[in-house]
Specification:
By secondary structure, the first copy, chain A, is of the alpha/beta class. Chain A contains ten helices and 14 strands.
Chain lengths: 386, 386
Amino acid sequence: MLDAAEQRALRRALEIAADPAVPLGPNPRVGCVILTSEGELLAEGHHRGAGTAHAEADALARAAGPHGAGPLGAGAAALRGATAVVTLEPCAHVGRTGPCTDALIEAGIGRVVIARRDPNPLATGGIQRLREAGIDVETDVETDVPAELAAAAEQLNRGWEHGLEHGRPLVTAKLALTLDGRAAAADGTSQWITGPAAREEVHLLRTICDTVLVGTGTARTDHPTLTARRPDGALHPRQPLRAVMGTGAAPSLPVLEGAGEEIRLRTRDPSAALAELFSRGGRHVLLEGGPTLAAAFLRAGLVDELIVHLAPTLLGAGRPAVEDLAIDTLTQRMDLELLDVAPLPSPGGRTDLRLTLRPRASPPGPVPSPSATSLPVSLDSSGARA
Amino acid sequence: MLDAAEQRALRRALEIAADPAVPLGPNPRVGCVILTSEGELLAEGHHRGAGTAHAEADALARAAGPHGAGPLGAGAAALRGATAVVTLEPCAHVGRTGPCTDALIEAGIGRVVIARRDPNPLATGGIQRLREAGIDVETDVETDVPAELAAAAEQLNRGWEHGLEHGRPLVTAKLALTLDGRAAAADGTSQWITGPAAREEVHLLRTICDTVLVGTGTARTDHPTLTARRPDGALHPRQPLRAVMGTGAAPSLPVLEGAGEEIRLRTRDPSAALAELFSRGGRHVLLEGGPTLAAAFLRAGLVDELIVHLAPTLLGAGRPAVEDLAIDTLTQRMDLELLDVAPLPSPGGRTDLRLTLRPRASPPGPVPSPSATSLPVSLDSSGARA
């Protein structure tokens, strides 16, 4: 069980781990907060990207007094019997830095609280090593902490964890469509199907994914900047890689100071595109359109999550939001699991809906007793997803 | 203010008014519960259709003792100073029966609680007449009672009230569609896009509307029975009029014992069809398809409410759920106001969504401060709407 001080420490560790100055991609984001055995804050630290200190080492250094750099330097003696609250299982391998487990053991830490286990086969073993050294290790904290804290821990390194498990980036497809499934009107106009709240959420999604991917058609038609901007137009501190995929001609994306790098993937094969993005460190790809690209990834079974912004409006004609899925008859339908529904109210009285869905791997099995409350319909429209 | 006994009485009055044995259509449904001044039940009554006693007269007769027919006969003396709780403003005109206001006054009723005012210019004036007779009249109870009670009072005679105000039936369009706006797959298969819970709700809708309307295309393709059935296949006690509209050829609907009467409207003009249905006593029409009929009514501005059953599934091709709306460009979009969202979970893990929407008469005006909680996302999926 986590006590109240440890829960607060975990919240803070997740917060500093998510520092927007830290790049996304092939390294996990990790935070560490060290408490005295009385629950007083000793030090905090986080990982700042490949080649920099791990979160535990960062926190230990800041806590260790004269040799530590941090303002909270409390001397090495204070660490004896202290508690380290970490967002990810401490590593047990020697990489560019020494194993964090050894550093914790040597510092005399008495207890370690771990939010997520490390799925990386190279790094795992940390829990066992800590326990062998006599340290009290608390894991599987999901049930001990508020749901939003468990969700934040899960979201923090979703793409990185997915990459370790599947060898390709996590793929989130974003669709903006009308109630009758249109992504554009008959004359091709599509700006804007959804209201300001939904569009602002897209910019937040771009800060959570490390890569934004569009097809050449969208690049030609929409000239999208694919930057993550605040409502006032200012750039978010973190900008995604901007990838354009396809064999057709397409102009370069608009050149903008501070925008993410642009790359061109000259393939129509979603697997090949994802392999290329993965090799460049991409771990979470946001598919932003258009309908042809979305259909290609759906057909290939390479969409892990759909975020649908549904505008309560009808067009009666125009480009469908999803193109041919090679489905001829109803039994071949592509069923999705509806995970969440939330309204996105905009000034002026427009309210779009955000639906979060996941393709079903296979026909749904029997569910014990489906109840109306089994679907989390969230009224929180703050938009932040991480 | 209503006291607790009066709130209970109103709940009961709404319940008996909605007796499924009472026909829908051109007469309002009304319930009346009479309480002693101590809040004890004296009698209850309801209207049973054209030519029968009004609810107040029914309740008074049951309460009035030897001459009353009811089991609760308590003698005329008990009515002195009693409270009558009625779902609709008592009438002040002489129709096939004498005015209810006079009957209440003569009986010596001391207080009358009225859930809804009578929008009928011929019947109105009841409140004034009661007050002139020295009776304490409580109106505009919406804010005094639980929201679901106020909603039930509003739902009870929605079609009837709409008819008085607009001179045509209320029109509810029901659409069943996929996330990408399809009503059928490429080969025309459409049974079933939605799960059992959504389909059961359609049967409940058919018991609330007095008329079900389909186009000749749907009659030809689907051979729909258009009956209101329970999940076990048994017919609901109330069955809608079954109307088929269009100038094309169409077979008769399936002949079924207990089903509603079938009529054919040989027109493609929604206004003409509604005028004909109104003259036959129709006050609430459920448009059940297909896409051509829905589009015709939407184009004509003759849809008052949309109930959309959205299946979380993709088809990528197939018949759109709404056909041509004569919209060429995005600015001509047909915006709808999203009133409610609710999940419809079915056994087997399928969850459809029910969206309730209303066409916007004009572009939305400025809204003071739209908040996330302004949209009632209801988790109640009981399906009952009245």
